[in-house]
Design goal:
The chain is α/β, with parallel strands linked by helices and 296 residues long. 40% of the residues lie in helices and 12% in strands. The protein has helices spanning 20-28, 41-49, 61-64, 76-89, 108-120, 134-145, 174-189, 202-208, 232-235, 253-270, 284-295, and strands spanning 33-37, 54-57, 94-98, 126-128, 150-155, 194-198, 216-219, 227-230.
């Protein structure tokens, strides 16, 4: 199978490379930060074309790309492969990789070793881990101490959704909101460079923002966060159903892909494809020599 060679990865990049200090300056200037997930070279190139600030290789790729029923099943090697492919298409955005479930919980040493693999082998600029409890905070601090920037994640944490009662909003009671606040403050104290707030009531986010000095990226957390993130396949409609209530669909690519493949299949079956313009020619003299040789 072949395809036209792509230009070098950085050939069309003209904008400055995003850095953590620049993200902080965006927060201070109240310039909204744009983050989107990507899982391979084409989705990374789409993110670059839109000049997004952060590309997250989310463990959501377990479901959107690899077909697992949840994020829990995806392994380190699979996430490394997705991150490396995304790296090749990411030239300017900050590239953050999710640490998959089971790759950092056991010990600080395990967490640091996993994080270093994502930087060295896959080219990630930073890693993200879920949860604001003591385990996650200690792991984040250890990874940062080893020289790898960490993005924290509080609110709905899909890797432990079962313990949270399923995929539903968090922080809708005072106790739950206080737990989110404590986790966010602890991760900030552990020197995380940014936080994700997922499925958190708008009012809770608004109340916390004056107390958070690092960029906060929201997903279903309201407009007061410093930036927003959506899953690539959700915002482009490359999935069945609408998804979570916070998803805004900007295209319906699954329908377009289905229609395109169906049209191709129909053309092959009725003989419409390939047509003459889709083939290659040979000089008549060379063809004559070839057929004569075959006949001998």
């Amino acid at each position: 199978m072949s395809s036209k060679p792509a230009p070098p990865t950085g050939a069309s990049s003209a904008r400055p490379v995003m850095s953590i200090p620049h993200l902080l300056s965006l927060k201070h200037s109240r310039t909204p930060i744009v983050m989107v997930t990507a899982y391979d070279y084409p989705s990374a190139r789409a993110a670059e074309a839109a000049a997004v600030d952060i590309v997250l290789v989310g463990d959501s790729g377990a479901m959107t790309v690899l077909g697992y029923p949840s994020t829990v099943a995806v392994g380190i090697e699979e996430m490394l492969m997705l991150t490396a492919a995304t790296r090749r298409g990411t030239t300017s955005a900050l590239l953050v990789a999710d640490l998959p479930f089971g790759s950092y919980e056991v010990s600080d040493q395990q967490a640091v070793a996993t994080a270093i693999r994502f930087v060295k082998e896959a080219g990630a600029d930073a890693v993200k881990l879920e949860g604001g409890g003591s385990m996650s905070v200690h792991r984040a601090a250890a990874i940062v101490a080893a020289g790898v920037p960490v993005m924290g994640h509080v609110g709905l944490t899909p890797q432990t959704a079962t313990a949270l009662g399923g995929y539903k909003a968090q922080g809708r009671s005072a106790d739950s909101a206080i737990s989110i606040a404590r986790g966010a403050f602890a991760l900030q104290e552990a020197a995380c460079f940014s936080l994700v707030f997922e499925a958190v009531p708008n009012a809770v986010t608004a109340a916390l923002m004056p107390r958070i000095s690092i960029p906060v990226i929201g997903i279903g957390a309201g407009p007061d966060a410093d930036g927003q993130v959506l899953v690539f396949h959700d915002l482009l409609g490359i999935r069945a159903g609408q998804g979570a209530r916070f998803v805004k669909r900007y295209a319906d690519l699954q329908d377009a892909m289905n229609a395109g493949v169906a049209a191709y299949a129909a053309d092959v079956r009725d003989g419409t494809y390939p047509a003459a313009e889709h083939g290659y020619s040979i000089d008549p003299i060379e063809l004559a020599r070839f057929t004569k040789t075959l006949a001998e």
